[in-house]
Amino acid sequence: MSIRVLFLGEIVGKPGIATVKSALRKLREDKKIDLVIANGEGATGGFGLGRAHSMQLFKLGIDILTGGEKIYYKKDMVEFIAKNPNILRPANYPQQNPGRGVKYLTVNEQKVCVINLLGNADFPRTHLGNSFALAQMLVDKAREDNQIVLIQYHASTTAEKSTMGYMLDGKASAVIGTHTKILSGDARILKHHTAFITDNGRCGSQTSVGGFSSSTEINKFITQIPVRSNECWDDLELVGVLVDVENDGKATAIETVRVQVESPAQQEENEHV
């Protein structure tokens, strides 16, 4: 029996949560999706994931939330992540850190292992274990028990993500890149039946700078004065990739998903027309 997995791009702020609220349940039903994995580390104001927002996203139909270098940005998540096995920090954080980076579950009677990893380049605040060596160890361990292995790789460089994809081709069913928040155009099935994409985009405003108001980000670059980024509500979309995996672990299809969503202001305007 096959499984269908939706990997949602990074959920950026309240606009990102609004896209999930508006579109996920119908998409899940229409596409007969068995498992939803989402990058949630930008859900709280674009910087981190708070406890309340994580619980809201689970209620909206997400099964597993992942995070990267911003996973501990919100104080209440530091404690809460240890209590909720469906929120994954990167597995290559120190072992004694709160939370876990691996999730074992059963989907359609298939054993599934979800692994979340953080890249080692361009994250100056983190000094983590080698993501490639750990990925090999964790994947080999999961495959001993005939697990379908799904990798979420939160990395800054395309080289890291491509290398991880090719290294795990034929071992993992999917290697899905996150972090840059731009849906890349390279979704494909690799030679040995692993689904791969460099980056599965973001949920939230698409005509923005990573989900934030362009005018604010422009001023920051011009003046070099740090100010708080402002969430943008323009051109909302639910974005991600849909992957089909057979019970032998081979991915048979990967497709990008983009669902346009009206902003609350648009909805109110249309109601008065």
UniProtKB/TrEMBL annotation:
One of its GO terms (molecular function) is 2',3'-cyclic-nucleotide 3'-phosphodiesterase activity. Gene3D superfamilies: 3.60.21.10. Pfam families: YmdB. It comes from the Bacteria. This is Metallophosphoesterase, MG_246/BB_0505 family. It comes from Sphaerochaeta pleomorpha (strain ATCC BAA-1885 / DSM 22778 / Grapes). The lineage of its organism: Bacteria, Pseudomonadati, Spirochaetota, Spirochaetia, Spirochaetales.
